[in-house]
Amino acid sequence: MIDQYGRNINYLRLSVTERCTLRCVYCRADEGICPKAAELSCADFLRIARVCVDLGIRRIRVTGGEPLLRKDILEIVGGLGQIEELVDLTMTTNAQYLAEHAEGLKKAGLKRINISLDSLREDRYRQITGGELKNVLEGIDAAVNADLLPIKINVVLVRGVNDDEVDDFIALTRDNPLDVRMIELMPVGVLGQDESLRINNDELIAARPYLQPVAPSYSGQPSRDYKITGHQGRVGFISPISHSFCADCNRIRVMSDGMLRPCLGNNAEISLKPALQEGDDALLEVIRSTIFNKPMRHHFEKGFSSEKSMLKIGG
Ligand code: SAM
């Protein structure tokens, strides 16, 4: 549906849990997370998704927390996979458990997958996330074998932590069917407020004149994409701070505690729980009016800081 600023809101992110096994230095939640028992049920998520699709949502991303921690994740993806109107159904995962799930997710209807990977060095990966790089690499192989393509590797760059690995990540696109995207650190979560840690993507692009700009894969895509001659994958830059894409923003978020958040960079949220009790007409009305009133833009550059980490909001 079209919001008050004329944007076509057609993309829903469902954060199905705030639980995560990783403790990424810039993302871990210092505040209490939504306990498992208070998370929306699979049936609630599917009802919300159905209503959102009736309002014009055509793409859904399942995220978290770590979505693969939900025991009913195949049921959730399977239910979403049966919504015929959807043109895209994807997931963002840290891939710690992807190797065992990739095939099942594909069969359940997942079309493609994004994988978060902030370092290609075993020790550093462990330091940044507390997880094991080996699991991620096995997860990527499993996703390729399950045809969850194109696979996007998301890298959040933190100055002095992993910014010396940009070219190693770009090299991954040479022989692998992987698109790599560099994401600017946002003022969300524990480290994101420190501007000195943020790398402006323009710096990275300017230093690599061999990157050739290519058209976005779909309209409303947040990344600016580039290719290197002879490489299989693309290199993308997601720059919410240096190049805000609010004018084209097409998304809303529903979180595992039932809150609907129309803008990542604005703390306003509304609970869907009362409407879930009331019925689908009430649910449709609250989602419709929240979409219509979606804020015009975020104010990351004006000292905004999110009261919640990305773990809770769903990246
Ligand atoms: N557990 C899943 C994962 O790791 O992909 C999904 C949730 S995670 C919160 C989603 C993405 O948000 C990850 O790629 C993470 O790096 C990113 N993220 C978290 N905090 C961020 C921040 N302050 N700025 C930019 N990206 C952030």
TrEMBL record:
Keyword Iron-sulfur: yes
Residues of the Radical SAM core domain: 4-223
Catalytic activities: GTP + AH2 + S-adenosyl-L-methionine = (8S)-3',8-cyclo-7,8-dihydroguanosine 5'-triphosphate + 5'-deoxyadenosine + L-methionine + A + H(+)
Annotated binding of GTP, by residue: R13, R61, T92, K152, R251, I252, R253
Gene Ontology molecular function terms on file: 4 iron, 4 sulfur cluster binding; cyclic pyranopterin monophosphate synthase activity; GTP 3',8'-cyclase activity; GTP binding; metal ion binding; S-adenosyl-L-methionine binding
The protein's assembly and partners: Monomer and homodimer.
Taxon lineage: Bacteria, Bacillati, Chloroflexota, Anaerolineae, Anaerolineales
Pathway: Cofactor biosynthesis; molybdopterin biosynthesis
UniProt-listed GO biological process terms: Mo-molybdopterin cofactor biosynthetic process
Protein purpose: Catalyzes the cyclization of GTP to (8S)-3',8-cyclo-7,8-dihydroguanosine 5'-triphosphate.
Positions contributing to [4Fe-4S] cluster 1 binding: C20, C24, C27
PROSITE patterns xref list: RADICAL_SAM
Gene3D superfamilies xref list: Aldolase class I
Cofactor detail note: Binds 2 [4Fe-4S] clusters. Binds 1 [4Fe-4S] cluster coordinated with 3 cysteines and an exchangeable S-adenosyl-L-methionine and 1 [4Fe-4S] cluster coordinated with 3 cysteines and the GTP-derived substrate.
SUPFAM superfamilies linked to this entry: Radical SAM enzymes (SSF102114)
Name assigned to this protein: GTP 3',8-cyclase
Keywords, ordered alphabetically: 4Fe-4S, GTP-binding, Iron, Iron-sulfur, Lyase, Metal-binding, Molybdenum cofactor biosynthesis, Nucleotide-binding, S-adenosyl-L-methionine
Residues annotated as binding S-adenosyl-L-methionine: Y26, G65, S116, M186
Pfam families: Mob_synth_C, Radical_SAM
Cofactor: [4Fe-4S] cluster
EC number: 4.1.99.22
